[in-house]
Specification:
By secondary structure, the chain is of the alpha+beta class. The chain has 4 helices and 3 strands, in the order ββαβααα. It has a 3-stranded antiparallel β-sheet. The longest helix is centred in the middle third of the chain and has 11 residues. The protein is globular, with a radius of gyration of 13 Å.
């Protein structure tokens, strides 16, 4: 599987859009500061991901999500999360 994912920085509320063939390891790399693009803005929270069978499809989707139209799509897709923030855990 190949994954396109969106992280949100808990320090500055910025977003990062990425792609990986191993989502679990890639998230660990972001959290551990092993990604040059995100090392200075963590910690990170995974807020969205999509899975693909083919690498070319995942890379195409990553590029789309980084475009203006893709960012508009994400804004609409995540509108409740962006307006209200992540769900709160209840006990």
């Amino acid at each position: 599987m190949f994954y396109v994912y969106i992280l949100r920085s808990e320090s500055d509320s910025g977003f990062y859009i990425g792609y990986s063939s191993n989502l679990r390891v890639r998230l660990w790399q972001h959290q551990d500061g092993r990604s040059r693009a995100t090392s200075y803005r963590g910690p990170w929270r995974l807020i969205y991901y999509e899975a693909y069978l083919h690498q070319a499809d995942a890379l195409g989707r990553e590029n789309y999500l980084k475009s203006g139209a893709g960012r508009r799509f994400l804004k609409a897709q995540l509108r409740h999360f962006l307006a209200e923030g992540p769900p709160r855990q209840t006990e």
